[in-house]
Amino acid sequence: MTAAPQGTGSSEHRTVTVPDGLAGERLDAALARMFGFSRSRAADLVAQGLVRVDGHAPAKSERVHAGSLLDVEIPAALDPVAVVPEIVEGIKIIHDDDALVVIDKPIGVAVHPSPGWSGPTVVGHLTAAGFRIATSGASERQGIVQRLDVGTSGVMVIAKSEYAYSRLKNAFRHRTVDKTYHALVQGHPDPLRGTVDAPIGRNPKYDYKFAVRADGKHSVTHYETLEAHRFASLLEIHLETGRTHQIRVHMAALKHPCVGDLTYGADPTLAARVGLERQWLHAVRLGFEHPDTGEYVEYESDYPDDLAASLEQIRDAH
């Protein structure tokens, strides 16, 4: 088998000869074996017209013959976790000093890049805005000591110095950070204040969801009812642990999902009625010991317009 790689910057062009051992194989299977990538990626290259067999455009199911010449254009794979510097409209800087930056995160923004997410990120915004953040942590998550879901808005802190990263990471790990959320949930939790202590693990049927599971991670949520209305209750929630989707999963387990949280069983009719296109959940306060001064600091975030408007509708409903 001979190969003549010719780098073209954004892609690589290779010409190879089919070896005897792959004669009779499907083209996508043969490509996968010869180039070492997945069969689905091989099929994609054929579908995009980037593969020619003896000069003609083949089907992915075509059988290959020994000695046939394959011309393959291989686009450079984009790194799914590369940080893309990009100013994100709506991110507000609440506080900034040498140790840390506290932001108000809008919805539709991920904290850091991840496979499958091509939208804006907090890390990308801070990079584009010229913030120097800590280099501790994986390259795409440098300086990140906590996360908020893409669909959850509110206050969060990012470490700028390595010392602050270490201290804050430790504080979150030892649960000495006060994380306060407000959630508008369907119905009226009984009792009006309480604690949900139920382990959370990935949902076995849907990999994008989580669920209360006996084999899940220890998860504790404290809630208190601030306002009770006809269709929904406004809760103040303190997280003792910080699992992915923790509040959403625990509220759904109580049969009081966050209003608008269709992923976890919220009523779509009520969501439409109050004009919500996401879960009513907001990180309102964050309190911790400042890593440099040692004094207790607390930062707050007001409800964004969509949540404030839907809460008013709930208050006015009779």
What's the pLDDT, averaged over the residues?
A: 91
What is the H level of CATH, i.e. the homologous superfamily of the largest domain? Pseudouridine synthase
Strand content: 25-35%
Number of helices: 7
Q: What is the CATH top level name of the largest domain?
A: Alpha Beta
What gyration radius follows from the Cα positions, in whole Å?
A: 25 Å
Alpha-carbon distance between the two ends: 77 Å
Annotation keywords:
single chain, alpha+beta, Structural Genomics Hypothetical 15.5 Kd Protein In mrcA-pckA Intergenic Region, Chain A, Pseudouridine synthase, 3 domains, 9-stranded mixed β-sheet, rRNA pseudouridine synthase activity
What would your notes on this structure say?
α1 packs across α2 (39-47). The protein folds into three domains: 6-75, RNA-binding S4 domain (Structural Genomics Hypothetical 15.5 Kd Protein In mrcA-pckA Intergenic Region, Chain A); 78-174, Pseudouridine synthase (2-Layer Sandwich); 176-318, Pseudouridine synthase, CATH 3.30.2350. The model is unreliable at 1-9 (pLDDT under 50). It has helices at residues 27-35, 39-47, 122-128, 162-173, 246-253, 268-273, 305-316; strands at 6-7, 11-17, 51-53, 69-75, 92-96, 100-105, 153-159, 178-186, 193-197, 200-202, 210-212, 220-228, 232-239, 281-289, 296-300. Strands 5, 6, 7, 8, 9, 12, 13, 14 and 15 form a nine-stranded mixed beta sheet that branches. The radius of gyration is 25 Å and the shape is elongated. By secondary structure, the chain is an alpha+beta fold. The N and C termini lie far apart (77 Å). It is 20% helix and 28% strand. It is an enzyme of class 5 (isomerase). Belongs to the pseudouridine synthase RluA family.
